[in-house]
Amino acid sequence: MGRRTVGLALAFAVGVTLLAVPQAVGASVKGDPTATTLWLRVDDKRVGPGERATFSARLQNSTTGSPAAGADVLLMRRPVDGRLWRFVDVKRTGLDGRVAWTKYISASGEYQALFRGSSAYSLARSDNRTVVVKPIVTSRLSRDWVRPTGSVRLDARVRPVFDSERVRLQRKVGGVWRTADRQKQGGQGRVTFRIGGMDAYGPERYRVAVGERIGHLPAISEPWKLTTVRLVTYRIETRGKVAGVLDAFKQRTAEIYADPRGWSRSYVHFKRVTSGGGFSLFLSQAKFVPSFGSVCARYWSCRVGRNVIINENRWRRGTPHFKRSGGTMAEYRAMVTNHETGHWFGLGHATCGGRGEAAPVMMQQSKGLYGCEPNAWPIPGEIAGVR
Fold first, then answer.
1. Confidence class of residue 50 from pLDDT cuts 50, 70 and 90?
2. Superfamily of structural domain 22-133
3. What's the predicted TM-score (pTM) here?
4. Pairwise CA distance, residues 126 & 116, whole Å
């Protein structure tokens, strides 16, 4: 082997050794070249996937602290659980001895600035700086209600992907988040959970979580509220000539039944069906209302058995008593729908609780308010009576 070949091999071995053996912060190699110190800082040590971090380094004279200009400084990286340093980028220091890099971070890692030395300055390494990825967990429920014997799907995604790492479904119990299920991440960090209804009606809160590992921080999704409900089905029927308002009636009553101020607070979910159903919601021409039974009159709405009957004239015009008390037609339509449906739930009539109070929805507000304020929605006692 010639002298030149031996020299190249020796130089290569020295270069590999310098990259493989890190030194402490401020350490420097002294000799004929000026001893130097290399510092490295990072603006944010916790970043989300795909976010950027800015690294800044300064090379200076170890004795005087003066900047070392015109030196090529390398940014190196290795995995947090790895040993091999890899080159990321190189920049030349300015007159102030500084250099900076802004890099997208896809995974957690350790970073180090390296100056390999020159005829003027000695080799120097910075201390290691760790940048940890904080995962992002997103999730989505297929719907926000479930029957006691049913189930819903919760789809979640973790970014960045941590292959085969388990993701936890958590439910809040007594103020504490407890693990309800575990699933391994699939492709693109996706995972799916099935959540069944509870024995008792009411809301439960769920979220998706990933635990802390060497390579990342812990992370959780936004919580979801899933309510176990009593499913109530109904169908729309008519009696007489009501075609002019039927489409609007269907849409508005569906909105009333879905409104969070309404009977849904009793953990009831209404679903319109085309046949059968738990009850029939009628829009009836006024002259046909008495045909439903003796308790019905052509001026008012009523409920008979499984039939909830809304008088078309009242739906169009409301009543003078309700309007004089300050009620709007939108409020009247919600009130009369909720009132007659409340009878189907088994509730009777209520009275005004006191001047200035909101009238119970089961009060006959069409006939007078008696000091109460118009109110279209069930009050707490009425909600409790249906639960």
1. confident
2. Macroglobulin (MG2) domain (2.60.40.1930)
3. 0.71
4. 12
